[in-house]
What we know:
By secondary structure, this protein is α+β, with helices and mostly antiparallel strands. It has 2 domains: 1-33; 36-136, no CATH class. The chain contains 2 helices and 7 strands, in the order H-E-E-E-E-E-H-E-E. The protein has helices spanning 2-33, 82-101; strands at 36-48, 55-60, 66-71, 75-76, 79-80, 105-115, 124-136. The strands form 2 sheets. Strands 3-2-1-7-6 form a 5-stranded antiparallel β-sheet, covered by helices on one side. It has a two-stranded antiparallel ribbon with strand order 4-5.
Amino acid sequence: MKNILKNLLPATIIAVAIFAGLSFKNSSQNNANTIYEYKQFSTIESVISGGLGRSRILTTDDNGTLIEKDLMNFYSLVGINFGNIANNDRSIVDKLNEWTSNGWELTEVTSGAQTNMSNGSTSNGIFITRYLFRKPKP
């Protein structure tokens, strides 16, 4: 019995390795032959004291027209406003859900920040995040 198991173990390992290799190769070939169309939206969130900034979700429709949706600023007149941040999170997740339910796959998220620290404060700037989606062309 030990000899049978001893002989089956290498054969089993080789079979699993071949299956895994073929599965990976097939999925890679399918992706390489797929042609995608891409779509992106950006969020700009203001970090300007007193609520004076402009925060938006920016998209472009199929005709190249800019579509803006207002977001709340991180700061209100009394300081950082966590309710505004929560509202922005909800709006962004709603947009993500809308696009994924329409067949778009989120493939990349890129973010950055720009602040003006010349006055010694970090409460003056923007956060920008870009969401890149794709789906196979029909």
